Amino acid sequence: MKSQGGELLDDTDVRILRLLQLDGDLTNRALAGRLGLAESTCAHRVRMLRARGVIRGSQVRLNEAALGYPIQALIRVRLGSHSASRVRDLFDALCAIPSALRVFHVAGVDDFLVHVAVRDPEALRDVVLEHITVHPVVRATETQLLFEVRDGQGPLI
User: Fold this and answer.
1) 45-95 pLDDT, tens per residue?
2) pTM
3) Distance CA 115, CA 138 (A)
4) Which fold has domain 65-146?
5) Helix, strand or coil for residue 6?
6) Lowest CB count within 10 Å: 24, 83, 111, 133, which one?
7) For the chain, what are the domain ranges?
8) Per DSSP, which regions of 110-150 are E strands?
9) What is the DSSP secondary structure assignment for residue 80, as one 8-state letter?
10) To which H or E segment does residue 88 belong?
């Protein structure tokens, strides 16, 4: 298997990635133990995977509903024109929306998908009206409520 930079990933690298994908909170000691590696070897390999850009970071995943943001939605955004600078500027603006969880630049009928978490329907309306449709390049939006969101298995499982 090759990494993004074209370097080969050996079986141990892939095993490290699989375990971290399943449980990103694993300590180096636990990870090394599960792999049968010395802790120093395991730590070095993880550092190298980070340096090569294979591991992009670690994040805390929040429960938005528990924080008072129980409504999640995908807002589909269609543009009226597609100059590179306007697309980049809008992408940056969409990522800066306070309730945005993730923003996807996509191909097809829509140009962007904005995944948001908000307190109530009024806040969802405000996201669309105050943060998205105010941009002249935006031609149309369509909002879809999410009933449930689950994580997928990922590519290495």
Assistant:
1) 999 999 999 999 888 889 999 999 999 999 999 999 999 999 999 999 999
2) 0.84
3) 17
4) Alpha-Beta Plaits (3.30.70)
5) coil
6) 83
7) 1-60, 65-146
8) 112-118, 138-146
9) S
10) helix 84-95
